[in-house]
Structures are given as C-alpha cells and as structure tokens.
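Q: What residues go here?
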C-alpha cells in the first residue's frame, strides 16, 4: 500500500468550475491532504478560534457535502490508476487516523 501515487478528485459544488485535483505520493499522504483541506475550511469558517477540534463524523459530513470526491490510486501490477469512491476514501481515512492515534 505504501508509495502508491494517489490523485484526489474533488468538486465542492454543482458548479463545474469548482472541480480540482490534488496528487500525492501515497494513500497516506492523500488522507493527510484531505484532513488538511477540511481543517483549512474550518479555520476559514472560524477565524477567531485558535483551537478547532472535530471528530470523524464531522469529516465524513464534509466529504458527503461535496458535490463529488474520488481517488485514483496507481496499481503497479497493471500500470494503471484504479478509481475509488468517497466511501473508500472514508474507510481509508478512519484507518489512517486510527494508525496516527496509536
């Protein structure tokens, strides 16, 4: 699983101009990146708060509130990117955050 290039595709609203992508060297880095995007949004919404906390439910609600989010993960065995939906992203996020907590 390590070092599998991952491209996260995201669309924040129904407006097609909000489509964007981020690429990462690994699935783990992609999960960190998704958390960072959410944390930036929280800071933008709460500029006066110095300490902002959230739980996995809040992060899931953020992901579900996007018009679209998916991830393309490179599979070395077939030399191609495999698509993954937002459910896959949420499963990987919880696994990733559990690893960080230990």
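A:
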């Amino acid at each position: 699983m390590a070092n599998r290039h991952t491209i996260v595709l995201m669309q924040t609203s129904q407006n097609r101009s909000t489509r964007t992508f981020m690429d990462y060297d690994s699935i783990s880095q992609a999960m960190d990146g998704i958390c960072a995007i959410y944390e930036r949004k929280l800071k933008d919404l709460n500029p006066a708060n110095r300490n902002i906390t959230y739980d996995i439910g809040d992060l899931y609600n953020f992901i579900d509130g996007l018009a679209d989010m998916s991830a393309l993960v490179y599979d070395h065995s077939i030399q191609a990117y495999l698509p993954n939906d937002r459910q896959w992203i949420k499963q990987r996020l919880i696994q990733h955050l559990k690893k960080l907590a230990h």
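A: Context that may help when evaluating the design: The longest strand covers residues 68-75. Residues 62 and 83 are 20 Å apart (CA to CA).
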